[in-house]
Each structure stands twice: as structure tokens, then as C-alpha cells.
Amino acid sequence: MAEEAILGFLQNNDEIPHSGQFAVEHDLDHEDLKNVIKSLQAFRYIEAKLIKREFYDLTDEGKKYAVEGSPEVHFFSAVPEEGTISIDDLKRMLDPCVFDVGSKQAPKKKWVAMGQQVSRTVQHVEDKVKEMLLQIQQGLELDQESLKSLKSRKLVILTEKWSGYSEVRKGSNYAPERRILATDLTRENLQTWRELDFKEYNFNAKGQPVDAGHLHPLLKVRKQFKDIFCQMGFEEMPTNNFVESSFWNFDALFQPQQHPARDSHDTFFLKAPLTTRELPEDYVARVKQVHESGGYGSRGYNYEWKREEANKNLLRTHTTAVSSRMLHALAKGPFTPKKYFSIDRVFRNEAVDKTHLAEFHQIEGLVCDRGLTLGDLIGLLQEFFSRLGMTKLRFKPAYNPYTEPSMEIFSYHEELEKWIEIGNSGMFRPEMLQPMGLPEDVRVIAWGLSLERPTMILYEIGNIRELFGHKVDLDLIKKNPICRLGIASA
To answer: Is the peptide bond before 397 cis (omega within 30 degrees of 0)?
Structure first.
């Protein structure tokens, strides 16, 4: 019905000026009319111009200003034409709400000079806010800038969004009736093809999306980090055990048993199995000794080290627990320099918010060799992060129980125009390395960072819960772009 009305009207008229008015005059549903116009436009029976409009109503505050005038005009009027008036006198003269808003808006519009004394900077002002509010009440349209200023002050509220068409005219394929187009090349259609009109083929149309697996952004960024480590000659450590004993997670790293990180408020301890089944007893004895009385140039922590604390099972809080196992294994044979890395999940008993989760991924790299120094660590960090595209680095002294010296790593963020922390680093302490059985002149330099933070920056994700967990948007997984970090190779 709507299609017949449109095509029939245009047969004897130049245009339909407004779809809303046309729908009222011909007793048509406007939504149905819009759909028909859109369909006819697609087949070039007609041409039409899409129009959109928003309708606003005044809030209670806006209605008050429309009647009484804006607070900034009342504030301006209270200031004498000549001379000044004290701010305290203005407070007494004006309603508190009028003074509060007017004292902000009048100086902002450069109508008055504010201080302990207030004076006019102009002699006459127009109440444009009141004029705009009255125009809204009359159903008139305002420009976007005016609307924005009223919305920012919460003087108007959106009540309706409307869309329609104007300037509806005949198109290049106009006909009083829609022709039925043949869409299939059947035997019958081929026999009578001269008498038929065929639907045009859209060779640019995309096919149905293919259902397939998609890589998560974290996996893409992880692959880039792994490639960088491999390019620099590192080998990956096995990180398949999420459950770790307190011994390898804390004690082997020379972290005292009374350290706050070992509290249940920070660590997930297991109920079953509650404790580990076996530990290397000779190594445990050396770790116990260095904790209680020191050694290797250290005084230790001077407390009673308890085996039952070391036996407790937990969800590992860092992948450095894997590093301690690897270094202990390395110390059993003739010493060979090694470069290790790992990228895997760790667990912390933390409150979940937009930047923290109870589980996340840690990236860790370490180099074990004779005679390494802090200069080697800094040089390696500059090489590593330059491959991520981060060339401006700074280092800040920090504290870690198992590294000395320790450094926080900062990089300059060009878009934010400030230095941001990107990782932590240090040299493993002798109290950690010597009980393992490594030679005295062997040093280990290491650094770590999270996988989630660079991924959030690369993919412009503001809430970590939208990247990892049950709130992930599946469209993000399907449509996220290829990840390229820094430079592809050395």
C-alpha cells in the first residue's frame, strides 16, 4: 500500500517533501513508509534524502531558567554598573543556587572580573540561555553547539529520536509499478530471457562469514613476545605446573616466611593436596641455614625457619618459581651459560577491578653467566624493549627480597606524554644462588612484566575484565587486528 502511494504520487508530482507529513496525509504507518522508501531507493526507483532529528524537553532547572532567566544574568545584574561589590555581599543578596551557578558562568563568559571584589567587564549582556530554552519549548531546532552547552548543564533531556526522508524524487529506474525481477537462471528463464528483467548481481557483496576459530588478543601479543625472546637466543622454560610448593615459590627465592606476600590475603593456598610430597633435602637444608643464620656474605633473617610452612601448596604467585627450579637443575651439572624465558599464568588473591585480576600472565626473562653486572642488565633491557618499540627508558631503584640491586623500568609514553612503569628487574641475590650449588662467580640478571598491560594499550582496552574472563566481548575476539610489536627482527 505504501509502495503504491509513493510511486503513484510521484507519477504526477515532482517530489515528496517530507515522509512524516506524507504518512499523515495518506494514513500510512511512518515506519512502514520508511522501509518502503529504503527498498525503492536501493533499486533506484526513487531518490531520497535521509533526515534525523532529536526532540528535547526542559528539565525542572531548565523550566525555571526559561521563566526567571539564567543565574549568570541574575549574578551580572546584581553587580553595580560602576564600581565593585564584595563577594560576601553578593552571597547575601542572591539565592544560594543562583550564586553558585552564576559565580561560575558569569566569569566564564567574561561578563565580570572575580576576586574579593566583583566588577563588570561589559555593560550589557543577552540571556542566550533563556532564549535557547524558550526555542526548545516552542519545538524549534538548535545548532549542535547550543544543544551541547544545554546538555552539559543538564537543562534539557532527550525525549525522542526521529528519522525520516525528504526530497523524495523519481530515480533512474522509476516506474509506476515495481517490476518483478528474475533472480535465478532457470531453464524457463533462459528460454524467455528477452522478455524478463533480471536482478543486477552485486559482485562486491561479501559472502556469509565463515565460522572458524579466532586467536585471542593475549595470544597474539604473547606470540610476538615469544618471537622476540627467540630472536635474542632465549629458550623457553616449562611452566605447566600452576600448583607450586611454598618452598619453590618463596623459600628458594630467599623470601622470609613472615613476608606479607605469604599471607592468605595475598596468596591462594590449597586445601587438597595441602602439602608437597617431596623436596630435595640437601638443598632444603642449605636454604634453611641461609634463612636462619645467613651465609655467603649474608647475616640471613635470624628467625626459626619452619619446614611445615615450606611444604604448603599454593597457586604460584609468579613464574620466578619456575626460574628457581631451572637454576637448581642447572647447578647439578657442569656450569653452562643459559638464557631462559617464560610467559604463563600466575595467581594473586587480589580484589578485582578494571586494572587487576586474581589471575594474569607474567613475562619473565633471565640470563645466567659468569661475571654479569648491572650494566649488562641495563643493556639487555634496552635491547629487549627497543624490539617492542620502546626506546626511551629510565630505571628507578626498588626493593625485591630475592634481587639486589633491583630496578623498576619506566618508558616514556608519547601519546600520554608521561613516563609509565612497564616492568621490574634485578640481579638474583647470592643467598638465592649459592645454596643451589652454582659457582660463586655466576650471576643471574632477570626482569619481568605483565602480558595484559601491553595488550590493553595496543588494543585500547580500558578495563582488564573486557580482555580476560567471562565478560569478554566475543566480537573483540573475532575482529581484533593483527599484532605487530616494535620491530620484526634484530
So the answer is: no
